[in-house]
């Protein structure tokens, strides 16, 4: 593994600590590539590096003719590298002693892009409490924000066809652009849920000065827009204000297809006609098909709505009759994902009437009676969640059938609902989607209100059939499950 470190006026103590953290690795088959663009006032950088290089032949140092900034210096640093895998380390940060060993284990299992958890620190890593626990790789989560960040290691072959690792036009968000491009090509992306990277916080560091850099935000939006062009997806990229570094993509909806809302009776007290009237008043999308039995259609009038006892739309929305939209473009917000060829199931943010969270995605968890852990259950609507995970679109393992959208062709391909999975048919469908290689998407921009009581509401109960089919096989490798997150209040 070649560790890539561009240098520029690095403080002497930080430089020594960085180099020694690499030398302290328990995995020894590495080279440390240092490309130095420091100015004449910081000649000590060259002196320090040469001192270490003379004692350790694995350290490769090169003084650059001129400083080319983070983009150019990193690309020049790669020119020095001879490894099969490249790891990216900032000049003032530190690696955990077992970082490369853990990465090597993942590589031996076929990984070609690896990232780890990280910790921010000021003086000593041991005194830090700013720990960043990350999700497994999710295409939509990555498009919402650069949560991968440090420590990144990737196979050299992923650079084939690329002019350079970093692009000058994305300076300021060059890491984000790099991760977007490399993960497009990677075949086996692995997240190591261990803190293996220490990100130093000091005056002048990126970790202290993320806010207020408009050029970095603009570069990030360009990187996302460029990915949409490369993948042939049409959409607009914007910041989800006031969060400048959280992004929202509005995908173009193709051909305005018929959507079937398949109502499931859950509340015996529901006046069905009154419910459907409210549903349509709060729904902008047309054409729309309402699928249910026993509805007095005579009370309805208006264009673009039909009623049926059998779904004929290109997209299905399964909806219980105790749920009503809180955002009138709820269908559009889900359809833009459901129409993608790489997406299986899509679900909204479901809230109770007291403005707390009923459902915001779910993961497998063997310690739960149902085998399913609900993310941020009970969290107030105005809370942003861990790493602001309630303010952006993300991938999740499981969605609920209380409100779930899926393309008709995808539903058929996956075999529909399994009658043997009583009470877990929605979760089973989502896991079949995941097993087939599709993304399941949760969006905070489609909001639904549940009429159920928070204190007595149970989404899933115990099921031996569900555990036998899915939990024993999948829960430990569930790409969206992080064991440390359950220690947090809302996880």
From TrEMBL:
Annotated Glycosyltransferase 2-like domain residues: 2-159, 309-356
Alphabetical list of Gene3D superfamilies matching this protein: Spore Coat Polysaccharide Biosynthesis Protein SpsA, Chain A (3.90.550.10)
InterPro entries linked to this entry: Glyco_trans_2-like, Glycosyltransf_2, Nucleotide-diphossugar_trans
Name of protein: Glycosyltransferase
Organism: Mordavella massiliensis
């Amino acid at each position: 593994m070649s560790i890539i470190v561009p240098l520029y006026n690095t403080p002497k103590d930080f430089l020594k600590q960085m180099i020694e953290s690499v030398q302290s690795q328990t995995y020894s088959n590495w080279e440390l590539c240092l490309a130095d663009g420091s100015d004449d006032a910081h000649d000590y950088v060259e002196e320090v590096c040469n001192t270490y290089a003379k004692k350790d032949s694995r350290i490769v140092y090169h003084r650059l003719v001129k400083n080319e900034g983070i983009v150019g210096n990193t690309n020049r640093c790669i020119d020095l590298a001879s490894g099969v895998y490249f790891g990216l380390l900032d000049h003032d940060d530190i690696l955990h002693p077992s970082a490369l060993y853990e990465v090597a284990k993942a590589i031996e299992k076929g990984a070609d892009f690896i990232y780890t958890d990280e910790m921010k620190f000021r003086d000593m890593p041991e005194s830090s409490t700013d720990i960043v626990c990350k999700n497994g790789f999710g295409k939509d989560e990555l498009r919402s924000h650069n949560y991968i960040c440090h420590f990144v290691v990737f196979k050299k072959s992923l650079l084939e066809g690329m002019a350079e690792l970093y692009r000058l036009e994305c300076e300021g968000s060059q890491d984000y652009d790099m991760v977007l491009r490399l993960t497009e090509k990677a075949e086996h992306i692995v997240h190591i849920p261990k803190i293996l990277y220490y990100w130093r916080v000091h005056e002048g560091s990126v970790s202290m000065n993320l806010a207020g850099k408009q050029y970095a935000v603009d570069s990030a939006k360009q990187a996302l827009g460029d990915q949409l062009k490369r993948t042939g997806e049409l959409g607009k990229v914007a910041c989800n204000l006031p969060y400048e570094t959280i992004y929202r993509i509005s995908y173009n909806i193709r051909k305005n297809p018929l959507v079937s809302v398949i109502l499931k009776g859950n509340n015996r007290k529901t006046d069905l006609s009154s419910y459907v009237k409210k549903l349509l008043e709060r729904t902008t999308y047309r054409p729309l098909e309402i699928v249910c039995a026993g509805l007095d259609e005579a009370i309805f009038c208006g264009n673009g709505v039909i009623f049926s006892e059998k779904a004929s739309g290109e997209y299905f929305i399964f909806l219980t009759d105790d749920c009503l939209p809180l955002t009138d473009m709820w269908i559009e917000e889900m359809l833009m994902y459901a129409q993608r060829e790489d997406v299986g199931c899509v679900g909204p943010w479901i809230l109770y009437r007291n403005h707390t969270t009923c459902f915001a995605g779910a993961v497998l968890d063997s310690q739960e009676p149902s085998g399913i852990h609900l993310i941020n259950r009970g969290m107030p609507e105005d809370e942003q969640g861990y790493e602001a995970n309630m303010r952006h679109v993300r991938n999740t393992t499981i969605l609920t059938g209380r409100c779930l959208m899926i393309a008709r062709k995808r539903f058929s391909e996956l075999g529909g609902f399994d009658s043997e999975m009583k009470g877990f048919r929605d979760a089973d469908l989502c896991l079949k989607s995941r097993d087939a290689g599709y993304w399941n998407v949760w969006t905070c921009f489609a909001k639904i209100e549940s009429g159920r009581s928070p204190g007595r509401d149970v989404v899933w109960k115990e099921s031996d059939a569900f555990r036998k089919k899915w939990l024993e096989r999948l829960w430990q490798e569930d790409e969206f499950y992080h064991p440390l997150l359950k220690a947090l209040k809302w996880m």
